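Lecture 7, part B: from sequences to assemblies.

Below are the input chains for today's worked example.
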Amino acid sequence: MNTDSTSTVALGLPTLRGTDGVPTLAEHELLTGKDFTSDQEVRWCPGCGDYAVLKAVQGFLPELNIRRENVVFISGIGCSSRFPYYLDTYGMHSIHGRAPSIATGLATAREDLHVFVVTGDGDALSIGGNHLIHALRRNVNMTILLFNNRIYGLTKGQYSPTSETGKVTKTSPMGSLDHPFNPVSLALGAEATFVARTIDSDRKHLTSVLTAAAAHRGTSLVEIYQNCPIFNDGAFDAIKSPDTKADAIIPLVHGEPITFGPRNPDTGLGDKALIRTTTGAIEVVPVADIATEAILIHDAHNPDPSTAFAISRLTDAGYLHQSPIGIFRQVERPTYDDEARAQVRTAQGDNPTDAKARLQALINGNDTWTV
Amino acid sequence: MTYVIAQPCVDVKDKACVDECPVDCIYEGKRMLYIHPDECVDCGACEPVCPTEAIFYEDDVPEEQTRYTAINAEFFSELGAPGGAARSDFAGQDHPDITALPEGLNA
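Predicted structure of the full complex, as structure tokens:
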């Protein structure tokens, strides 16, 4: 192998899929949500969206058909990060913002573990902003659940990296000056291979998105809109209320035309649709004004993230009146941990001498100079 | 585990809890409200807002009302998991034990 400092080597295409490498349950073994429920008393505020996510996760984990001892939940700091206590799996309530880094190490060292990260908008996007984007670009095998309540709840209500501009909080008495992050746009910009968004109170959608995310090999980022009933109540009312949600949620389903608003019972289409304009941008237009063929078909498997990014920009940056929900992007790319393990195997296989001799040879290497 | 609506709700049906429930799992029957045990996420938002103190965590239902845990669950045994009270209408129905209760119980 040429190890010249400027050379690159072809790493090949991924051969592993989904949760390959994680032992599955024996044929007669069957787990239920109860098996994944710990004996700890759940302590979030009454009405918190975290309860709904916890229940959905406890409900979907048995479907993965893997052992509890091969599941790990790593969290950072924040309300959402209490999550590992309530699951009867391995877990770690770790350092603020650093859960993706710890998960990177664990996923690389232990191929037999299914690694989840639980984080919030403050933990993932402010304190741990760098750790998140680098996990995403490396495509480490992990499923990231990003609970977005658009506020710092644990510290009692300060504006967060996803709070809307002008938001009045304890730390922004005259309104926040910060322009908010859109977590989906950020993840797509970092070229994450799986990016999705769902809602805490929609158990069916949440479960289906989590199932797809867990089955994805590589980093999956799932943004979960989560209501904080104490410090940011009603942040997602427009997309939750039965009266307004049809016009607020733009549902993304791979292979289907993207429409929203009240459905026409004959065509199954909403009254508004996304189209691509002549400049390449995405626009919302009334379905009645355009030909059905002009409606944008959602392609989550497109290797180019630009259309997914354009769709993600339809999310309101201010109060949320409109937001695309579903899987934005789901593509295959080699994962960091698979490649790292393969390199270690190759390096060890090429050299018949023992580890100590190899280390000494490295130290004695010819790339030295005198100062 | 789940929250349970018990006897003080019968013929009262204040419905403050319905507005409070983040997952819309409280269904209106003819004489009382029922919590769907599989859809309830145990968040506890409903319990403090009930003016008649009819809502209890499953473990804390008073001994003389423990039957209500089964009554809430059995109400849905044929209705299944509708996935949200807003799109359901069971207001004409009740669990047979509730139908059999005398009038003016909580008057």
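Note for the exam: DSSP finds eleven helices and eleven strands in chain A. Keep this in mind when comparing with the next example.
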